[in-house]
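quick one before i forget lol
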Amino acid sequence: MPSSDEGERERPTRRKLLATIGVGTVSTGLAGCTGLLSEPESDGDGGEATDAPTATDSAAETATEAQTEAQDTQAQVSGPTAGLEPCLRPASAATCGSPVSVGGDIAADTVWGAECDEYVVADSVSVTGGATLTVEPGTRVVFAQNTALHVEEDSALSAVGTCGDPIVFTGEQQTRGYWDGIQLIEADQTPSELAYCVVEYGGGDRFTWAPAAGNVAVVDGARTSITNSVVRESAGYGVVLDSNVIVDGFSENVLTANESGAAFASARAAGGLSDTSSYTGNDEDVVVLYGGTITEGQEPTWDGIDVPYRVLAGDDVTVRGHLTVAPGATIEFGQDCAMTMDDSGPGRLTAVGIDPDTEESRPITFTGEQKTRGYWQGIQFYESDRTENQLRNCVVEYAGSERFTWANAAANVVAIDGSRVRIDDTVIRESAAYGVQIDGESEADSFTRNTLTRNGSGAAYVHPRSAAALSDTGTYAGNDVDTVAVYGGTITENQRLTWGAIDVPYTVRSGDAVTVRGHLTVAPGTTVEFGQDSSLTMDDSGPGRLTAVGIDPDTEESRPITFTGEQKTPGYWKGIQFYESNRTENRLRNCVVEYGGGDRFTWAQEPANVVVIDGSRLALVGSTIRHSAGYAVDVDGESTLTASNNTYTNNASGGVSN
């Protein structure tokens, strides 16, 4: 048990340290810290004291001291920012009489705090040569202006405080940027550890190899663990993590009151940040990500932290490994930024905004730093043929600034060159172009219950094959142009696809041809618009066939299918052609075909809305064929047309040519 003189010295020192770091900060920011001022006194070996005061005057002294400490505590934690506000630092003497002045290189294992609880860094300190600097619990390290603590290759810092005795790294003046901070560089042999620490008033200058200034900068392959700590009042960021560092632990921290933001990290290193920490209360409440690559074999997770991640303007995040974005996360993109899942690896993205334990909805948001259409480029899946690619319960907005190099159109979400992705329960909106672009080599394994709205060019831009992925369980309305644009291409032999009855028309791009060599089914209630001079052909390869029956198969309700021109002008598009397609699946029932006949198909006799030639077969039942610039139907002598209950009207050349 300490002597009474030792006890009298320890208790004022304890009050001094708590005042230095802010009682409220320790009790709220350092996880698990409770009853800081009511903890048992310690004996000389750190164990609990066993002798309680018994004399009346001793009890009175203890009560008076407790009242004084309680008043100190009340002063520290009052107000709306309890414990997070800068606190006055009493200039009390160190336990050893006066602080120890340090500086220069440390090339052998060294302990700060064994004999004194306060050190002044008069000149920058570099830990080198494989040495370990250990800072004892309760130690206060004060830095002169423009100084720093460098932990270099093969060396380590062990600053492990306790809940009752945290370690403080601070400036001689309580001014942001007064000192430069703690730098861990190439120190990867032993993890440098900060636990139950306060690091404050650094970030005065960016370290040579660091991407930004911060209180703690971990660079060039260094490894670290930061837990139960407060990092605050930096003139830059709280923590800086570059692209190839190793974060062994990052939990229960408070990064607050920093000028530039909570943290500055590479896309990969951001996976080390934990949602058990707090990142709010900074001048900019953000974790900034700079461009870079998540390489093959790397599998980081961006947690759903309490501030957005923000990708620097002009930077791209390239994923060649596997990036998981946790429920509740928000990623903001600076101007012209993009995220690409690349062919190397291949890269893949899993973003599911559902809590895996509770099934609670916690949407993931991919957005622009500014809420302006086209502010960033979008999310691209490029040659990423992996089932892990998933967007579920997400919001993707304000992208579509520019077409990706190999994409057919600009969009918020792009899947091209053999990629595959699942998109469900997701809102895709406010693109400067389209909401989604999917090419003919790519697969949407699922596309259900999505909302594609308020996009500049339309809901989606798709190949005829990928149009079949769009489910009628979603909505595609509310765009500047309410359409799903279909560009020219071929549905190949053995492909059996259905265009669902979505709530906007499919619009075949002007001048393009949709060629069917497999089997295309058009669902009841569907509208297909054709741009100028575009066409739909069932080809001899396969042969292609078309089934368009405008009757609900379950209720027998009439739900006509419409094939029309984008403009309601006779001859605006070319028409529907069956060429060498002798298949019974060819059926047009309860359909409207209008405004075609703009030009004669190569082997046809006459221009017409519907052309049946070269041994083809078609059942045409209960349909209206109208407003052709030529005939309603052109059928040659080698083909079979079974027609009943049809209406041919307002066709320039007449009804049926044969």
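fyi The two ends are 114 Å apart (CA to CA).
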